[in-house]
Every structure is written in C-alpha cells, then in structure tokens.
Amino acid sequence: MSALTVYEAIGGETTMRRLVESFYDKVAADTLLRPLFPPTFDEVKERQFWFLTQLFGGPRLYTERRGQPMLRARHLPFPITTRHAQAWLRCMASAMADADIPTPAREAMLQRLTATAYHMVNTELEEEQRGI
Ligand code: HEM
Q1: N or C: which end of the chain has fewer CB within 10 A?
Q2: In the chain, how many domains are there?
Q3: Model pLDDT for residues 43-65, shown as the tens digit of each residue
Q4: Which atom of ligand 1 is nearest to the CA of 51?
Q5: Total-model pTM
Q6: How far is the CA of 93 from the centre of ligand 1 (A)?
Q7: What CATH number corresponds to the domain at position 104?
Q8: Residue 42 falls inside a structural domain
Q9: Interval between CA 113 and ligand 1 midpoint (Å)
C-alpha cells in the first residue's frame, strides 16, 4: 500500500476546487490584497487550482499548462510585503476551514504554503513609503 498524497487525503479535485473558490472570495474581500489583483479572478483561480493540485501531489496540471512555476519571478510585477504574505496566509487558513480540510492535512499544507508566501515577498516598502 502506498502512502496517500495530501491531494488524495483531502479529497482530490472536489476539495481543491472548494478551497480555491473560498480562498479568492476572501482575497476579494481583503482590502490589502484586493488592489493587487485584476478585476476578475477567473484566470488566477484556475492557475492556482493547477498549482496547488500539483504542489500537493496531484496531477502536474500547472507545469503541463504554464511550464516551470517560477512563482517568485511571476510575482515580481506586484509589490508584495510581509503584510501581504500574512494576509494571503490568513485567507488560505480560513479557506481551508471552509473547505473542511482536516487539521493534520491543514497544518501540513499551511506549513508548506508559509514558506512559499514569504518567498514571494519582494519589497518591504509599505505604500506610504513608496509615496502612493
Ligand atoms: C504572498 C502573497 C501573495 C500575493 C500578494 C499574490 C498575488 C498574486 C497576484 C497579484 C497574481 C497575478 C494575478 C493575475 O495577474 O491575474 C498572482 C498569481 C499567482 N499566484 Fe500569487 N500571490 C501571493 C502568494 C502566492 C503563493 C504563496 C502562491 C502559491 C501557493 C501563489 C500562487 C500563484 C499562482 C499559481 C499564480 C498564477 C501564476 C501564473 O501562472 O501566471 N501566490 N498572485
């Protein structure tokens, strides 16, 4: 018997879709994060679904469709501070609760995503300091 991937353990595509839906509802309601995103979330939602599926051991949807993730480089056009990373992680933790992801899987996922979120930080200048 082989060990379940996190993707399988949480319920595969159905749960991952619920997670991503709920996550972007929260991002859309977050005053710090909302301005960084385009008017509609359709594209990023789909790409995030591909990415998280792949990251947690499901089919390699992201690489098949978008190539190497290179996520830090893809985020460089957006000024991301530590506060953005924290807000992103808060939205994700709360979306995981909405998607009924059980605690052990939730902790494993959050730990992995925490590293990725802080890796995306590319400026420590808050808006006031950038003169916006
Ligand atoms: C740290 C805070 C973060 C902020 C503020 C942020 C913000 C953004 C923004 C503004 C976009 C582009 C949306 C668009 O052009 O439609 C984006 C794309 C994306 N983000 Fe993030 N992000 C963050 C962290 C993360 C993390 C931790 C992950 C991975 C788990 C991630 C995965 C993605 C993916 C997969 C895309 C689509 C990339 C592509 O193929 O074009 N982001 N993000």
Answers
A1: N
A2: 1
A3: 999 999 999 999 999 999 999 99
A4: 35
A5: 0.94
A6: 16
A7: 1.10.490.10
A8: yes
A9: 12
